[in-house]
Amino acid sequence: MNKHYAAAATLVALAGWSAGAHAQDETDAALDLATGRAPGGSSVMLYGVIDANIEYLSHASATGGSLVRENSGGIHNSRFGVRGTESLGGGTSAWFVLEAGFNSNDGTQATAGTLFNRTAAVGLANDRLGSLSFGLQYTAMYDILLRYDPMTFAQQYTWFPTTGSADSFAFRARNNNSVKYVGRFRGLTAIAEYSFGGDAASFQSSAAYGGGLDYDGGTFGAAVAYDYRNGAINSSGTWTKSRNVSVTVRQDVGRGELLAGYEHYLYNPTRSAAEAQQLWFGGVRYPVLKNLKVTAAYYYEQNKTADTSNAWMSVLSAQYALSKRTSLYATVAYAQATRYANGQFTPVGTTDDTAFGSNQTGVTIGMFHKF
Predict the structure, then answer these.
(1) Would you indicate the residue range of the signal peptide (predicted)?
(2) Beta-carbon contacts of residue 313 (< 8 Å; ≥ 6 apart)
(3) Secondary structure class of 4 (helix, strand, coil)
(4) pTM for this prediction
(5) Which of 197, 253, 269, 317 is the most buried (most CB within 10 A)?
(6) Mean pLDDT of the residues in the chain
């Protein structure tokens, strides 16, 4: 048993589960498993994070009223999971990840009726060749943009992976029925994935694919990613098409880190119609003290679709680590629509709530604990 616990502890260290680490470390842990970087032997580990907060929102009702509520997942989505590896020899290993999301404020499943809604994947990994895996998995664009979003996809507040204007303007975080390859070659990570639509009427119906390259040069990084998906086939024998492309960079400056990027979205509801959106973003992360880090971020959303507003959002967030696993945080965000759009305005964060005014302010105070 001591040997088992030691292996689990090694995986915990590998995953970077420290309060000072960013959310991308969780993806790094999965990529380590996927590319054969997990420790030798066999191991199974239970892990998770629980995150809860109190939030204030302005312009939260049609009469202009404000809202105070408790949420799950301000910085990290609350979840638990099991991951494991088995060494097969010769630098090859088998691995799996099962991960379930839940709402800490009421104990319900994050996706009703689906237990492992975040990840359910199994694969083979080789030290030199990389990994091939199958199941419900993160898309390549999600894996890459998570590293470059200043707020690392925090629900309070970012405009990734969905954006404030509409859920349709988004790449998918995960794909069902996917086959995914991940390879690491010196400082370059390559990701490619394909999701089967499973429709007998057409192989392309509901299918999706994507890929990306992420270069890590230590103090400098740059990446490109692409995401494509088809809708279900309709009575006319056609389907909708969604395409996203992103370009991102990061640069360490002293103890801080600067991040910036661009995402372009194109949606074809029919063959003759198109909707487009651009998202520009940037920010800085800075460790003010040993246990205190501050993040500032800015997002600008430009829509080329009729009756859809342009908008911007600024965010300031601070995290204070009480220990390696427990942190307190406070975040404030302000979103402003720069163009009227049929009374529909962009809310702060990724909430489904509509902002009932041309601007909205969100303030969140919370904590998270990792295990």
Answers:
(1) 1-23
(2) 157, 159, 164, 298, 299, 333, 334, 335, 336, 346, 348
(3) helix
(4) 0.87
(5) 317
(6) 86
